[in-house]
């Protein structure tokens, strides 16, 4: 196991402190030597991991970031995050985030979300309904900031200029908020929407064209949107096991339900193609900054 940077820092501090005491105590001198031996630079750790076959083979888009930054717990600076927010194409083709999110005044900046300062990022969307877009120190994968960078709007390929509040969208939202029951309303009004092309916008396939059973392939994420049981069971029930399947409906709470999130939220920057990698290296770095506590200095 390579040492994290903070462990190394502690070790070198212990080693230094021990050196002073060493003049007085032979016992300490021996332990200082032992600590010194354990110290490895980042480059040394990398070489050792290569020798031990611990560097994963390439494949993932964020391979380099995973192997050389995340695994070694290199602290991500706010300065870098600020650069990302101000740079075009930072997460895939598109204009910079701060062109559209640069103030907490919702008349000038979408959702009153200010991604141009650290304070603004932590404050989140200030237009009603107000909410934070991540929580420092936690995994942000399912929080608005990172999911907007990773999750494609459904049906896959649906672009941002199609409304997310059509009568059919509202039928799904209300069904979730009123408990997601297998009742007459569901069978007559909601289930057919998942099975019909163009239900949520023009020239779009039915959800069940891609999510029709719990076998992948052909069904993306082993998600079956063709029955009530399948919808409530959720995604990846074979890969993860039925008990750990990813719930896509939280009865009574549409905003936490992945089905509603995927129907109503556009991936950022708007217009980005769904084929653009979802694990962009800079998305991984942004998520790591948040996990590390979203420090502003
Ligand atoms: C061309 C303008 C534009 C750009 C560029 C843009 N956004 Fe957005 N963003 C929007 C709009 C419009 C909305 C609100 C509509 C919606 O929810 O899709 C939004 C919503 C969001 C939200 C949801 C806030 C909430 O209420 O939870 C987040 C998070 C977000 N954007 C992040 C980003 C990030 C990160 C980038 C840079 C990769 C970015 N946006 C680039 C226009 C933009
Ligand atoms: C053309 C194929 C296609 C269609 C049509 C489609 N999806 Fe998807 N769906 C995908 C893919 C691919 C993913 C993988 C994640 C991504 O791209 O964001 C996905 C992911 C999802 C997820 C997330 C599952 C998870 O494990 O978190 C949900 C929920 C979802 N789709 C719902 C829907 C709904 C509802 C519809 C219809 C409105 C729909 N999909 C239509 C291809 C499709």
Write up this protein.
- The protein is an all-alpha fold.
- Helices cover about 40% and strands about 0% of the residues.
- The longest helix has 18 residues, at about 5-20.
- The model is unreliable at about 1-30 (pLDDT under 50).
- One heme C binds near residues 91, 94, 97, 99 and 125.
- The site of one heme C (HEC) has 21 residues, from helix 6 and helix 8.
Broad structural category: mainly alpha
Hetero ligands? heme C
Helix content: 40-55%
Tell me, briefly, the overall form: globular
Mean pLDDT: 90
Count of DSSP H/I helices: 14
Largest sheet: none
- The termini sit apart by 29 Å
Q: What's the SSE pattern?
A: HHHHHHHHHHHHHH
Based on CA atoms alone, the radius of gyration comes out at 24 Å
Portion of residues in beta strands equals: under 5%
* Total count of strands: 0
The low-confidence parts are 1-28
Summarize the structure.
This protein has 297 residues and is mainly α. The chain is 42% helix and 0% strand. One heme C binds next to helix 11 and helix 13.
Describe the protein's topology:
Blueprint: H1 5-22, H2 26-38, H3 42-51, H4 63-70, H5 78-86, H6 97-100, H7 118-123, H8 144-150, H9 167-177, H10 184-195, H11 207-210, H12 228-233, H13 258-264, H14 281-291
Key terms for this structure?
42% helix; disordered N terminus; binds heme C; 297 residues; mainly alpha
